[in-house]
Amino acid sequence: MGGIDKFGTKEQKDRYLPGMAKGKILGAFGLTEPNHGSDPGSMETTARPHPSKLGYFSISGSKTWITNSPIADVMLVWAKLQSTGKIRGFLIERAACPPGALGTPAIKNKNGLRASITGMIQLDECPVPKENMFPNIEGLKGPFACLNSARYGIAWGTIGALEDCIDRTRTYALERKQFKGNPLAKYQLVQKKLADAVTDAAYGILAATQVGRLIDEGKALPEMISMIKRQNCDRALANARKLQEIFGGNAVSDEYGIGRHVANLFVTQTYEGQSDIHSMFLLLENPA
User: Fold this and answer.
1) pTM, full prediction
2) What range does the domain containing 228 cover?
3) N or C end of the chain: smaller count of CB under 10 Å?
4) Pick the catalytic residue: 93, 131, 255, 272?
């Protein structure tokens, strides 16, 4: 929805956004490819004038790790124009694709984000009308603008997951008795792990709040979002792994939830720009 709202024509906005806002139209965002994750500029998905349908593009290529692709009604797919090599955004409607032109198989047996419906977008000479292309945005500026919005949300969500880890661990440490009937929470090694996690959660919330205020004021820079996305993901994952130790063998059981958070937080550290990539962004923008 963010991409359509920011870069779409009035007709595209009127056609898709009301239904998407009501949950009647499901969307997906297709940028990552099997051979190009952190390097989207090298994407292989291409768009060329359709050989037999006037006013249409023919799009071929594959996207992967796409949330909602198996159930999406409309997919925002980024592809290179064969004629210019420039990246453009296209809105592909499932119902309008002929048989064999669009495939969206689900990715099964994931270790993390198991509740998310994740899949691929496979395009084979898929016809897309020219009016479904974003008219005034080209290159990586378009997808990166969408990713910045997602990254800011992730900076909040990871701290929310960490807060749930803290709550679950505190409850467990108070209830679990070891060594002459003492609760685990009595021991300073356990207390320190909780104190470290609470501290990082507080700092993460404050950082995300401040960047949100700057966004509202039109003063935020992309590297600010890279910084809080990277830091909050990294600290949430590191603390969740340390808190997991307090559960001992019970940590591997779904009943306690802590292992699920650890698996999911690893994914958040990876998607929308892996932490090492965000480190590079920060160094490139702020060289020593």
Assistant:
1) 0.86
2) 141-285
3) C
4) 272
